[in-house]
Amino acid sequence: MKRVHLLTKSKDLPYSLHAVFGPTQSTGGKTRSVTTRAHVLEELGSADNPLTVADIANKLDIRMHVVGRHLKLLNNLGLVEYDSLGGEERRAQLKFRLNERVLRSQVKKVRSMKILTEETVDILFRVKEVSYQSLFEMLRPSHVNIKDQSIRNAIYVVINGLVMQGICKKAKYRAGYAYSRTNITENGRAIVNEIILPIKRALSGDEELLDRWKKINWGGYAKDALAKYIESSGYCNRHTQEERTAQVLLVIKENIGGIRPNKIKSLLGFNPGNHLKFLLDQHLVVRKKQGIGAFYFAVNPQHLN
To answer: Which domain does 111 fall in, by range?
Structure first.
């Protein structure tokens, strides 16, 4: 009867329930994604205020990175609004604490940045603990002729160099997760009220609800639900290795100016590593080092077929 209810609700959604809850089989962890996502949505639905990843993880007793992964998927479906700190914002929250057992004479300059190293060490020995953002604000006036991003990067290099020397330690906390904010949307609340909570009632033995579900003619809903499942299921949409290699080659050909592996991965949704190695071995692409990364170019980019 629970399956009948799910079929009827699936028809009203623009995506499959598989896309919402994920696969029902366990993938080696203690919980299945369908259970985790249902609990995450239920927690958000009952909360009066936005929750952080840490809040949800503590309530459900699961790891924060697991919660973060599910929230990103739910955010993509429009069921939650999930904001986590980006790279620079996350970096700004990092804190560094002086190792009080070290002597000032033990400090070595980081790379060729002698002055910036000395200025950073002066601050550390004076305040004992400082955030990356505070370091930037204290050091910025002494380097007015350098662009903001350049001095930020230089400070980050220096402070991490001091960490490697053992002069200071990086505080252990998950800035991105601690400062994230998640709200449930109206669509997400509908999933909770129309699917998750009724299923919980049925599992608790609500006879009236189960009797009502028994009267549903579910046959007409099955075809639509199956079509949506096939569309969203990775298992049903698997490609052969040859097809994926061809996809990688086509993307490289379309990017005449070169393309990096992580960009290929973001476009195609899978790791292109083995496919790139095969294409290199077959002399269909070339790899060129540019700056700090490698770019791939097609040998004959004008032929896209």
So the answer is: 89-170
